[in-house]
Structure formats: structure tokens, C-alpha cells
Amino acid sequence: MVWPSASPQTGMPAARARRYGYYIVSSPPRNNASVFEPTGKITAQIRPPESVLVQEIDLSYAILPWSEALQNGAALKAKYGDKVGFRYYEDEDHGIFWSNDPQVSIGKMVRESGFAEAAPELERIRKLYRAAGVPAYQ
């Protein structure tokens, strides 16, 4: 998504990237141009006097929440080596993962390793709360 704004703010586009799970590119005429990844983190940014920002993004990605077995991404790296790329954020308890192998999708890597992506896992937990009668989830 392109964030056409004259404002150099970073909080709002970061929150939207995280909430909706997509990349946002902002390029205000002052202060900074930024690429926000679906985790809400800024993955690339420039400030004056720089004027050109180039960032490769992979639109096929998985957001994985913390799990002990994931080992902050080390478990996938151990299994797939350089075939998997990722950035894991301990301060947010999740990471973004992608495949560097055109023959194996990140979805397949995640499934084969027994991990669950963040969105389906959160929905599974919400269903459990609703079934248990937790008022905020009714």
C-alpha cells in the first residue's frame, strides 16, 4: 500500500501495517521515506539529504508468533538454511519469514515444521474463548 501523505509520521502507518498485515510505503516530501513491513516495523528508511529509497520486498510471507519451538526463527534456519529468510523481533514476540527458494513456498516450510501463522492462531484462540463463554468474545 502506498501512504500518500505530506506528514513524516511513522506511528500511524506502522500501526496500519501491523493491523492489516501488509507492506506500506510512505514518501513524504520532508523528513523521511519509509517501508513498513506487515509486522509494523520499519524495514527501510531514508532521511535527507538522501532522496532515493530502494527496498526488495517479498509479498509471499508468513508472520509467526513466538513459540519455544521456533527459537526466534533459528529452528526454521536450522531446517532450511539459506532457503528461508526472516527478521524476528523479540520485543514484539513475532517475526516475518519468507522463502528464498522458488521451489518451496514459505507456507510449505511453516506447515512442514509444525508452526502456525499468527492470524489463524489468534482466530483459533478467539474461538476457544467464545466457546468458553468469555464475555469480551461473545
Polypeptide structure, described:
It is built from four helices and seven strands; from the N terminus they run βαββββαββαα. It has helices at residues 11-20, 74-80, 106-113, 118-131, and strands at 2-3, 24-26, 33-36, 42-46, 61-65, 84-89, 94-99. The radius of gyration is 17 Å and the shape is flat.
Radius of gyration: 17 Å
Q: Any low-confidence stretches, pLDDT <50, length ≥5? A: none
**DSSP, total strands:** 7
**Helix amount:** 25-40%
**Computed structural class:** alpha+beta
Q: What's the assembly state of these chains?
A: single chain
Q: Number of helical runs?
A: 4
Main β sheet profile: 4 strands, mixed
Strand coverage percent: 15-25%
Strand order of the largest sheet: 1-2-3-4
Q: Termini, distance in Å?
A: 32 Å
H-E string: EHEEEEHEEHH
Anisotropy-based shape? flat
Write down the overall mean pLDDT: 92
Architecture blueprint of SSEs:
Elements: E1 2-3, H1 11-20, E2 24-26, E3 33-36, E4 42-46, E5 61-65, H2 74-80, E6 84-89, E7 94-99, H3 106-113, H4 118-131
Parallel strand pairs: 1-2
Antiparallel strand pairs: 2-3, 3-4, 5-7, 6-7
Question: Brief description of this entry?
Answer:
The protein is of the alpha+beta class and 138 residues long. The chain contains four helices and seven strands; from the N terminus they run E-H-E-E-E-E-H-E-E-H-H.
